[in-house]
Design brief:
Oligomer: homodimer
CATH architecture of the largest domain in chain A: Orthogonal Bundle
CATH topology of the largest domain in chain A: Tetracycline Repressor, domain 2
Largest sheet of chain A: none
Mean pLDDT of chain A: 90
Low-confidence stretches of chain A: none
CATH class of the largest domain in chain A: Mainly Alpha
Structural class of chain A: mainly alpha
Number of helices of chain A: 9
Number of domains of chain A: 2
Chain lengths: ~210, ~210
DNA sequence: ACCATCACGTTAGTGACTAACATTTTGAGC
DNA sequence: GCTCAAAATGTTAGTCACTAACGTGATGGT
């Protein structure tokens, strides 16, 4: 509670942002993404349509959540280069999910509940699903870069792309299931199971970091 | 050459469709997807903008190619249920790619060249890439359905989703590489290599259908 | 207290896409 | 060949996402 955003302006700005996003997700969930216009969201939040676009570049960005790309990429870069690719990437994904959904015992908190609402919209709405898949694709590129394999070998780069994309796909399956289960199942466990189903149990079993 | 579309109307319709699409891909490639309006495409093809929308529901559909979902799904359904999931799906993907890029020795034909142009646009343009990833996601659902596992076991369904999505991701990597290589490398080989990099060489090695 | 900056509002515009209606062209029966 | 229903296309008007330009009031450092 010490280093709060100092200036009042920044606090108000992030507050309106949060407000707009909250109203947007609620309206989208209640009436459907396509049936709600940006003007509707603006009116519900008590701002002008232009303000919505100042905070969110597109209507889709009202729902899309920032993937912790930085966190995952660092975890991948820190992993041992001796391990097989899918274990390096898969382990990093599990660790990142653990870090994200950490402090909760069984019931998700308010933040996590909002995240689940967004995820459900992303899975069910075609336009949002497409954008979400593409943002995962961007994250994939970041992970491949952080793998640190020499760029001189195009074949190694291809293998890194293939293995990473497969891991991301498994994680996406876990994410979808997590949203369907309303967050009741632990996300890291779901990811581990998805990875095991894809690459075999031995590829991820010995990951425990005790 | 025997069972041509009988009626003249249908021939003309598919001909204008082909014409519009050809002009669209050419203009998009030359000037960029975002810089070309649907009105531009219509004018280049000598039709009205409304006619473009009659043939293609959205601007993006001018570039997106129909994935042979039916073919792949049938091949998956016909595969032995005894094999591991990734081998069943991966094998079907390789077979489908083989069937698609069949008759060419080294140089791609006109159809394949057009397909490569579309693919390059899909990879480089964010909006098209997103839609393409989502259409692959739809194909994934079709494959999972055709796997024929009992719907009574939700855990088995989850594993099928995870394994299939990972295979699709590997194939997408191969497809991207194929477009980058301008079709010089054989697509089935690329898919096999991507699958091997993800799941290990033994998961796909013994697939040769001599 | 002064003033540059920032958040927000307003307006006008572009472009993707839809709905409704008019027009022409094709195909099938007579 | 003629007629008529259906299909393909054109035209117009409209909605909505999104952008650019400009104005206004509040904020915060000096």
């Amino acid at each position: 509670m010490s280093e709060r955003q100092p200036t009042l302006r920044e606090r108000q700005r992030s507050e309106t942002r949060r407000l707009v996003q909250a109203h947007a997700v609620r309206l989208f969930t209640d009436h459907g993404y396509d049936a709600v216009t940006v003007a509707d969201v603006a009116e519900a939040a008590g701002v002008s349509a232009m303000t919505v676009y100042r905070h969110f570049p597109t209507k889709e960005d009202l729902v899309l959540i920032d993937q912790p790309a930085q966190l995952i990429a660092e975890q991948v870069a820190a992993s041992s280069a001796m391990q097989p690719l899918v274990r390096r990437v898969g382990g990093a994904l599990i660790d990142a999910a653990t870090a994200l959904t950490d402090g909760n015992g069984d019931e998700p908190g308010a933040d996590e509940r909002f995240l689940l609402d967004c995820l459900r919209l992303m899975v069910s709405t075609p336009a949002l699903r497409a954008r979400h898949l593409d943002s995962q694709y961007a994250l994939q590129q970041a992970i491949v870069d952080s793998l640190g394999d020499d760029a001189s070998d195009p074949d190694a780069a291809f293998r890194a792309q293939a293995a990473t994309s497969a891991c991301m796909a498994a994680m996406h399956t876990a994410l979808t299931r997590w949203a369907e289960d309303d967050g009741h199942t632990k996300l890291p466990d779901l990811i581990a199971r998805a990875l095991a189903a894809s690459f075999g149990g031995d590829a991820v079993a010995s990951h425990r970091e005790d």
